[in-house]
């Protein structure tokens, strides 16, 4: 049975997955790269990186994944739908390596990239998008790639089986908060917290059998 | 040098130190006792309790403390200033055992309780209240007892040397959030996070030498 998973979604102590304002120069706003330094330090990200708990969690990002769904705000800065040449932040070989579905009210034709990533553009509800992505995943799992708003939408729609958050020891004060609307999440998910020597705390939410 | 400390302030994953609405029947609103079960399970709280990491943190609540400052919302439910007989939630022998200063716009004469606790009522700024409490503490440390609003006020006034939060794996969705206004806290405090087998994560903020 194909599962729907979120991995490596980094948040501040106060729950913000991105700062503000988001722009082409600052995709995470005033958060800069501070939310993701734990990941850059791992072997998952770069040769010679750490191989402990942070890496053990980070590598699950790709394991068994057959498609990704992401929000418009992850694919590009504000205004990207007006740029017909925009192909994402990630250069010619994006780190997805599967069909990747971008949720947008401004769909365009698919873009085939190197390394197995093809961007598809969907104006769809979470249910519809997941059905399409699961079909493309061919029995493998679907990753909800973020940002926080999209993750929240899929969680509140009851579509997420596994959610991995990484809490970074900074207080951002403003941005997009992942927790909003998720009251009572612990009732449907088994929650586990484990802190890492790097200073981050990994939070996993795994859906209970119903 | 006397220090100002916060201990055992329990918060949800989304940062709420209390739910809502607060009342005589439900001091923590819809959070109930869920934020404090980790503490009730320790030897600090009850004979036969656990003696591991949760207890190690919990006992620091009393160690070296000579006075407490608390907010009006910790001392009683909404409306307590209208009840001349209200003496707090804690019965004849409150768990403070020192002079305890209640910040309120409705001061009343001091109330001497059993076990060394005397409640004093102050209409004062954080700076003024701390000066008064430090005097009463006689060289020992002053604890800021909460709630979250009072802790925030003292932290933003630059008066807190050590802050211990306990993050409980529940999402409350609403209440009083401890993080509001604390952007950049990591710049003036060394932050440490350690998760406990009980499921909570202890966060300590210790002021850096300036």
Could you explain how this protein is built, in words?
The structure is a homodimer of 210-residue chains. The first copy, chain A, is α/β, with parallel strands linked by helices and 210 residues long. Chain A has a single domain (4-78, 90-207), classed as Dihydrofolate Reductase, subunit A (3-Layer(aba) Sandwich), CATH 3.40.430. Chain A contains six helices and eleven strands. In chain A, strand 10 (189-195) and strand 11 (201-207) form a beta hairpin. Chain A binds chain B through residues 13-15, 167, 169-174, 177, 179, 181-186, 191-195, 199-201, 203, and chain B through 13-15, 167, 169-174, 177, 179, 181-186, 191-195, 199-201, 203.
Q: Which tags fit this structure?
A:
alpha/beta; 210 residues; nine-stranded mixed sheet; 11 strands; two-stranded antiparallel sheet
Examine the secondary-structure arrangement and name the CATH architecture of chain A.
3-Layer(aba) Sandwich
CATH topology of chain A: Dihydrofolate Reductase, subunit A
Structural class of chain A: alpha/beta
State the total count of DSSP E strands of chain A: 11
Describe the main β-sheet of chain A briefly: 9 strands, mixed
Task: Assign the CATH superfamily of chain A.
Answer: Dihydrofolate Reductase, subunit A
The percentage helix of chain A is 10-25%
Beta-strand content estimate of chain A: 25-35%
The tally of domains of chain A stands at: 1
Which whole number gives the mean pLDDT of chain A? 96
What order do the strands of the largest sheet of chain A run in, or round the barrel if closed? 5-6-4-3-7-1-8-11-10
Shape of chain A: globular
End-to-end Cα distance of chain A: 15 Å
Q: Which quaternary structure do these chains form?
A: homodimer
Order of helices and strands of chain A: EEHHEHEEEHEHEEHEE
Rg for CA atoms of chain A: 16 Å
Please give the CATH class of chain A.
Answer: Alpha Beta
Count helical runs of chain A.
Answer: 6
Most extensive protein-chain contact, per-chain counts: A-B, 27 and 27 residues
| Low-confidence spans of chain A | none
